[in-house]
Amino acid sequence: MFKIKNLEGVENVQLKVIENRENFMDDDFDFTKIEIAEFLEEHLGRFGDPLDEIIDSMDYALADGKYRGGFILVLHNEDNILGAVVMNNTGMKGYIPENILVYIAVNKEYRGKGIGGKLIDEAIKKADGEVALHVEYDNPAKRLYERKGFESKYAEMRLKN
């Protein structure tokens, strides 16, 4: 059982680690990849990406092969997803961290109860090597990431074609 303070009235909370497609077929897990992706899209809100891009990152996390892989964490009870994480492996080391925390979201109804922090802790424990993430400057979750030890190292710049 997965314990988090201040989750009154929420019972049977479990953390599911998904490392391959077969993990979706476990008897004790009732959520599909699409349901998790839709959860992320809804609960990331304006800080998220379109559903097809979320699904792509999940597929990357579940892929076999060199320079691919990662995992998905889903905190849930029997009825609801409470939070989810998508972590992608980069296949790099040093100049680019080995892992990118691509998505983390907490159900809007349960925010402020320690779920996000607990999910980050579990994701960091599960990841092999350094972890990077991208966060917009006005995202309220930025403070949580800083409390967990994440530091701003670079300003990201993108050229979109």
TrEMBL record:
Coiled coil: none annotated. Residues 18-161 form the N-acetyltransferase domain. The keyword Transferase applies. PROSITE patterns: GNAT. CDD domains: NAT_SF (cd04301). GO terms for molecular function: acyltransferase activity, transferring groups other than amino-acyl groups. It comes from the Bacteria. Pfam families: Acetyltransf_7. InterPro entries: Acyl_CoA_acyltransferase, GNAT_dom, YpeA/RimI_acetyltransf. This is Acetyltransferase (GNAT) domain-containing protein. It comes from Geotoga petraea.
